[in-house]
Write a structure and sequence with these properties.
Blueprint (H helix, E strand, L loop, with lengths): L1 H31 L17 H29 L7 H27 L27 H28 L5 H32 L6 H12 L2
Helix pairs in contact: 2-3, 2-4, 3-6, 4-5
Length: about 220
């Protein structure tokens, strides 16, 4: 008798589990059959506090692309036959390529987390600075100062995303870890390098005719 009751109980539990499994399956099919996924959909890769940092990351992507374009213009300026500064051209071409690659990496990160990068709308972060475009046809020393300002802005932007990710109402540790690993250290190194370049060249130019000093400094940049 007890054996029959046990078999009946096992059968009923199995039927209940099968019914719940079918319900879950049907729920997933229904939720995922829609062509448009809402933020509350179970069929996306969004989790943690991605909605709190997504606009900030979008703004940072825009900033990286803008800096990449500005660095490319600087590289072109110093690669002309009038300026003929291959060392400065190499420096700014490298910064342009790096900013472009960083923007692509951020786009991949956002889409991996279930976000969409929209270039048709402008996103401003709290760390955004003036959008006034600087004059890019500058001399060697002022170009370094401009690049240093750019790198500080990018470092501030990365810091703001990291702070937002760990202090938002709903935290996003994964995004904070990604920004810390991929951007904060790299931007700190870039700021340190360019600040050293600017100070060194400023000291070398404290002579009546700094043309030789600039030439030698450009030769130094070519070897970096």
């Amino acid at each position: 008798m007890k054996l029959l009751v046990a078999f009946a109980l096992i059968a009923s539990l199995g039927a209940l589990a099968q019914a719940e499994e079918e319900y879950c399956h049907n729920s997933v099919v229904t939720a995922c059959s829609s062509s448009t996924f809402s933020a509350n959909s179970i069929c996306n890769a969004r989790f943690a506090g991605i909605e709190h940092v997504e606009p900030e990351v979008q703004a940072y992507i825009n900033s990286q692309l803008t800096k990449s374009y500005e660095y490319l213009l600087l590289a072109t300026h110093f690669n002309s036959y009038q300026k003929n500064r291959p060392g400065f051209q190499k420096l700014y071409q490298g910064l342009s390529d790096r900013s472009f690659e960083d923007s692509i990496a951020l786009i991949k990160q956002i889409t991996k987390r279930g976000g969409i990068v929209d270039f048709n709308s402008r996103h401003e972060s709290a760390a955004s600075v003036s959008t006034k475009r600087p004059t890019l046809e500058v001399d060697e020393l002022h170009s370094l100062a401009l690049a240093l300002d750019n790198e500080k802005q990018l470092a501030t932007g990365a810091t703001h995303i990291h702070t937002r990710a760990i202090h938002a109402t709903e935290r996003d540790p994964e995004m904070a870890h990604y920004i810390e690993e991929e951007y904060l250290g790299k931007q700190a190194e870039s700021v340190r390098k360019l600040s050293g370049y600017a100070n060194d060249l400023a000291k070398l130019m404290k002579v009546p005719d700094p043309s030789l000093s600039i030439y030698l400094f450009d030769e130094y940049l070519q070897k970096q």
